[in-house]
Amino acid sequence: MTAFLQALASGLALGAIYGLIALGFNITYATTKTFNFGQGAFLVPGSLVGVSLLLLAAGKPHFGNLTQAEMTMTAYVLATIASVVVVGAIGVALYYCAIKPFVGAGGLNWVLSTIGFGIIMQNTALAIWGPASIAVPSPLGSDVWRIAGAGIRPQEVLIAVVAVAVMVGLDIVLRKTRFGKALRAVAFNPQAAAIVGINVETIVILAFVISSALAGLAGILIAPITTASVFIGLGVALKAFSAAIVGGLTSPRGCMLGGFLLGVVEALVGLWRAEMREITIFLLIIIVLVVRPSGLMGARSVEKI
Amino acid sequence: MPALGHAIGVAALAAALALVPYLSLNDFYLQILFTIGVNYLAAAGLNVLVGYAGQKSLGHAGLFAVGAYTAAIANIEWGINPWLSLVLACVFGAIFGLVIAMPSVRVSGPSLAMVTIGFGIVVEKIVTEWTDIFKGQAGFYGISPPSLGGVSFTNLHWVWFVGALCIATHLMLRSLLAGRYGRAFLAVQMAEPAAQSVGISVVRAKTLAFVISAVTCALAGAVVAQQNQYFNSDFITFNLSILLLVVVIFGGSGSLYGPIFGAVILTLLDAWLARWPALQHFTYGALLLFSLYLMPNGIAGAVSRLAARWRKPAETQPEISGHSALAAASSAPAGGEILVVKDLYKAYGGIVPVRNVSFAISAGKVHALIGPNGAGKTTLLNLLSGHVAPDGGSIRFEGRETVGLPAHRVAGLGIARTFQNLKLFGELSALDNVLLGAHLHIETGFTASLLGLPASRRTEAKARADALALLTDLGLGERAHEPAKSLPYGLQRRLEIARALASQPKLLLLDEPAAGLNPQETHELGEVIRRIQQAGVTVLLIEHHMDLVMGISQHVLVLDYGALIAEGRPEAIRRDPKVVAAYLGAEEDEAA
Amino acid sequence: MSMLAIEGLKVRYGAVEALKGISLRVGQGEVVTLIGGNGAGKSTLMRAIGGLVKVAGGAIRFEGRDIAGIKGHECVRLGIGHSPEGRMVFGDQSVRDNLVLGAYARRDEDGIEADIERYFGIFPRLAERQDQLAGTLSGGEQQMLAIARALMARPKLLLLDEPSLGLAPLIVREVFAVIRRLREEGMTILLVEQMANQALAVADRAYVIETGTITLAGTGAELLRDERVRSAYLGA
Question: What pTM, to 2 d.p., does this model score?
Fold first, then answer.
């Protein structure tokens, strides 16, 4: 039972990460029918930029290790803000280099161009930080919290709290604010959006900024669990992509749900046989797609002849 | 490429391979030649899937693994002879190709990418984790290479063998793709609804493309395992899937020569950059990011654009004279009811474009379906052609219920159609468009087509002659070899009719054939429709051009707000106050 | 000076010349209608004025300024409201949010709220369904919403593209009652219609368009009596 609770907790934390990234996929897919296939590489500066700034502030080289004392909550918040801002800005570059030339052209050329952008980013990161992984302490310390007998890592709780807060916040923004309504209008019909005076390209760029910033946030949230390195991104982003597809790429709530679902399934299967995690998850996804090609909560598309 | 030039090219390649031993290349260079061959093999099939059928796969490393592990296990665990192992690898490749095709053909876009990625990762994890059978990272040692006359393959032999496989693969794919299968793949990629309208099963075409790509990819994997005599799970990564796709796309997808360019250039680049791993990765990233932008059709596309500047197209006239489908003698018995529609109903949310429509159409006549914009005419046509499924009602064609049949089956029964917004296969020549129309009547088997057997060539030549005769009949003969999209708009409209006629339909549905035509072209269209009627084909046309409708049709149906409001002879319809009101609005409102 | 003056406007879609040099004008406070059969180029003209298609030649002068080639979202800011062909309401958002989005170019919160209430008064059915998703409305209700949404931008010129498209005759009459009311309030309107009789009845002036060219022009009353209008639709 305690093992189950422990697995459930880490599954929810991991799922929150998948959900955050998946939500980013949803926002750009809704507005442009594209998203960043190389998103994994965006987690890397997400986890490393903020941490390196803290290291530099502490007078150490930028690829060193932080001590627990140096990682206060204030420091972590500042590092998070730095990461989110930097990665969000990279999103603008992504849009102009890899998306704009291909958007609306049909086909899947954007899949390859975004993968290419990601490879370049990852290797830039490799040149800056090297291949070694950097241990990042959690601002809440490393002592396990005992809840109902189960040992739960405080960073897992932090991840879940922050991620859920961001998700709820974004959900409200998308539904209630002027920007959110405009973004959904662009997603529904870009021409109709232009008709009411919405500058469609501005909204699309903002969508890529948000999507990238969410990946950056995911990167710094997950760093204390996985350690920060140039290679953490690919696996996480692939599962986030799976989460988005399973939940429904066209539905923000579907993407969040898909994230949690995937995280929990992964953790629980891992409890049974660790090596079966990926196999189970991807077989499950293939089955879901065969039954519901648009995902659990996605809108079915009607093709016009 | 003309046949003679192609034959010279293949012979030159074979000669170059024969000369390899005299170049006294060391193993490093032989290995590079071998790798080029393997990359070509894998990419050649993938090109059929990506470039012809238009399906992206990000999981072909999984199929590479199927081939490699089949070769390894067959030889080591089951003690099967290496030659037979290679055959077995192809068979297993085909089976797994079918397996991955089953979910893949049901989805598109990002979901398709997901399914193929998922397949690749599942295979990767299985061969890594299931160490009892697949030996994981430790891998299989001592996989026997094939031997000839008791002598095991040396590196030189491998180059020869892979070279021979490449040439054979190239020749077979060239033969296959030049015929009805290649056309069907391209049709599916360019316009699915139009492909269905000429009787192509989209699911079967995509599945076949998956299987072809799986076989060549598995063969490549098997060859690598045997040449290496060792294989472990580290070979199978997501990056391999990406690499294979890059070879196809960078080389030029949809061109027979694309994978050759891709394999040669990327393998050499890879070998040259191997000294600087960081630079190697940057180069891949930059290739992915910018090559599609600079060369949307890859190297092959850029090369053929250059070549087209000084090469004038050689137009070969067929030796046999063809038979135009338009000249067919009337075969259908005139007068009987060929199509009976009852209580047909279709709703999209709150909008009901077709509400309980019933009518009958008699054979051998020209029927017109008219009505104001938004009345539901195109939806009705889509229901008749099977492109959209109704929510209720029945459609009987020659006494047979067609509701529930997919569009390609409806086409097979003898209902052809055109589209309001032209759906030609734009990149293909006018002739190929018409040949696609005749798809169901070109009966060449897959194997005959793959091997280029004389029977399949004869059938193809006959079909070409017929298609050309039809094009000439419709005044398009001069432009038969031009890409459909480069024709003037009026001729594109006419080509779409030619494509539909090539399927030798009993009923032809025309969706606004005069839209965008000038008065002269509209007049000629009227003549064409009259000739179609004389050839015994029943016509149902949607049209707004009233002079045309009134001039050529014997029976007019009027649809307004999703319901049939009138039907009868053209003169009567024109005076019908209900029809006038539907078009011009009710007179009573004038006073208001 | 005309509010809108179009001179020699040409638009091409690939190989097709959809507009072959159209000239027309709309004066302040006028209701001008452009009638013609399907495929004549009516909606293309509207899309060109609204900045949704590329112009291949000619000028579109709005209040004296050539706006040919400016983007759709900028047209709204200049004072052109557009109720497009096919309505294009935001189906996944509520009726009220559709109206809020209609005022996207404005920043006066109080004024926006007042306008929403005003249009709920004119279109009581929209008021009843203000929290419903726009996609669930009937065709007629969606048309009312599209008009109200265009008006929310407080346009100087209203483009009404085929408001009767696919609607039942009774609903068509309601739509035209709304147009008449807007006309009485002094709104300048360019109306594209297939329903010639109704359109001509509300219009001050009218143009008939056939295959991308204007073939007839006159006052609404003149064209109502002109046999040539009828033959443009149902053949000579």
Answer: 0.88
